Amino acid sequence: MRFVNRQPGHGGRWLLALLPLILILAAYATGSALRLADNPEDKLLPSATQMAEAIDRMAFTQDERTGDYLLWTDTAASLVRLGLGLGIAALAGLCLGIAAGTFPLLRAPLSPLLTLLSMVPPVAILPILFIVFGLDELSKVMLIVIGITPVLARDLEQRAREIPREVLVKAQTLGANSWTLVLRVVLPQLLSRLLVSLRLMLGSAWLFLICAEAISATSGLGYRIFLVRRYMAMDVILPYVVWITLLAWGSDYLLRRLNQWCFPWSMGEKA
Amino acid sequence: MFSRQLLSALVIGLAGLISPGAHAAPKTQFNVCWTIYAGWMPWEYAGAQGIVDKWAKKYGITIKVTQINDYVESINQYTAGQFDGCTMTNMDALTIPAAGGVDSTALVPGSYSNGNDGIVLKGKGKTLKDLKGQNVHLVQFSVSHYLLARGLDQAGLRERDVKVVNTSDADIAGAFATPKVTAAVTWNPQLATIAATPGAVKVFDSSQVPGEIIDLMVVNTATLKDNPALGKALTGAWFEVMALMKAGNVPALTHMAKASGTTLADYQSQLKTTALMFTPAEAVTFVTSPKLAETMKRVSKFSFDKNLLGEGAKSADAIGVAFPGGAVNGNAKNTKLRFDDTYLRLAADGKL
């Protein structure tokens, strides 16, 4: 049989999905064992036991100085910032997207501006951001907001413009004014898309969050990573990266379920 | 089976990619790295002007001098075995490579900070005591943190009297321009920028603890032991540039100023607060003085208090620091940082 026509069986699919992960873990374990055999104090590729000890220390042992369980305080601090940033960005993106996508008079000024703004790399203008928003929580949230709002708004604008003209005309012949048109026709269609866009932007949001925490902070997942990087504590950094990945994956999953639950029609045949 | 072969081939291949590269053996090619700082610009000059090449050739080796943009990253790269030598401070040499089990030798003590690191507070007439209760912005666990600890000591305060906010060195000047940031600790050139802020006062600087923040060229001890040529070539090249700097050679200083992104006048003012050891004899006196052991004891204690000596460290003495003549601070069986005067003496005696 030609390669192109061969299908993995049910078990085979699992095996093939796990294989790359197993390979990466095996390569890591080999490299780690080799380096540790060479120098037992090596910090670059810590062993599983060293990482387990670090997790125990960060997550289940009180910090001597502050009495906090560091992993959990860091996680809480980061999730609050991320949640606020995503929430504000979602709201702003939705309003801007609807405005630019539905009303030609608003589209004329908004659309080119959003296109332009979405091209500005927020990290490059950080010094301006923290002179405007200060160095504390606000600037960290704002970096996420500024980073993802224009992109969200552009995506939603595009979706709003894809709503068939006939639907809008029909709603108007049934007596809808601009306001009810937005509320009853455009908004319901865009809310589902908003959740999908948010899922796609999660990666960028985490990136901005970690950038902001690297610059100035007293807690947070990104703060901890950049702090212990100072003395190359990879035994802390690697578990933190895995934890961030799990959190990101979890929030992606929650958004997907939320979309399924609120807007089952958006899934098409898959629901 | 094909898949099994594939699997083993992949594992071996991947493992090969990340296998250790720090094995010491007689070799002829060496890599050293440096980062931008007033006291390390001579390495840039020596590399760019072929002075390192000249000395390496004399001993039949080649040395590649690489600039790394990120200071901590350069030390991490050295610790991971990518470089045979790297510029760093005494405290970072203890907490990064030495605590990471990489036996390192401080080959050339080039200079010490004599005002290059400082604590700045906003507000007319502020003094060190006004640190109490402030949010202090600095790079946590760096020499700035150490300087803060020394400053607090002198003011009769403790670290719990302030709140430390980790702020990256690249952004601290911008951060200090915001109204809410009222206290910062950093090093030059950022220090000069923030100290020049209207209404800001430098309340403490490293000239009040001279000789405690030392700028070193650190090399892998095993590599150096197997290849004395590396030590000779680097030491020779360094003091050739030092002679130029002592003589105030304007083209050389201009070159270094440009390479560090500043003007000659500005670079010269940075050098005023950098105590360079111009001659091998000065460097020998510095590393053989009993004060160095005292300083390192203090640095070990600070590092232990901040958990920087590694989780296995039971006390500030966990890592041995050796000095010329064989004296060791701390656990001699775990000596990982060595101050060595062998090559400095060769240079002083004109035997390089």
Describe this structure in words.
The complex is a heterodimer of chains A (271) and B (352). Chain A is an all-alpha fold. Helix content of chain A is 77%, strand content 1%. Chain A contains 10 helices and 1 strand. In chain A, helix 2 crosses helix 10 and helix 3 crosses helix 9. Chain A is globular, with a radius of gyration of 24 Å. Chain B has 352 residues and is α/β, with parallel strands linked by helices. Helices cover 43% and strands 21% of the residues of chain B. The radius of gyration of chain B is 21 Å and the shape is globular. At the A-B interface, helix 1, helix 2, helix 5, strand 1 and helix 9 of A face helix 1, helix 4 and strand 7 of B.
Name some characteristics of this structure:
heterodimer; A: 271 residues; mainly alpha; globular; B: 352 residues; alpha/beta; 9-stranded mixed β-sheet; 5-stranded mixed β-sheet; 15 helices
Largest sheet of chain B: 9 strands, mixed
What integer value in Å does the Rg of chain B equal? 21 Å
Mean pLDDT of chain B: 90
Range of helix content of chain B: 40-55%
For the terminal residues of chain A, how far apart are their CA atoms? 34 Å
Total beta strands of chain A: 1
DSSP strand tally of chain B: 14
Give the biggest sheet of chain A: none
Q: Estimate the strand proportion of chain A.
A: under 5%
Assembly of the depicted chains = heterodimer
Number of helices, where a helix is a run of at least 4 consecutive DSSP H or I residues of chain A: 10
State the end-to-end distance of chain B: 61 Å
* Percent range of helical residues of chain A: over 70%
Structural class by SSE content of chain A: mainly alpha
Average pLDDT taken over every residue of chain A = 92
Low-confidence stretches of chain B: 18-22
Q: Give the overall shape of chain A.
A: globular
Strand fraction of chain B equals 15-25%
Uncertain regions spanning at least 5 consecutive residues of chain A: none
Shape of chain B: globular
The most extensive interface between chains reads:
A-B, 39 and 45 residues
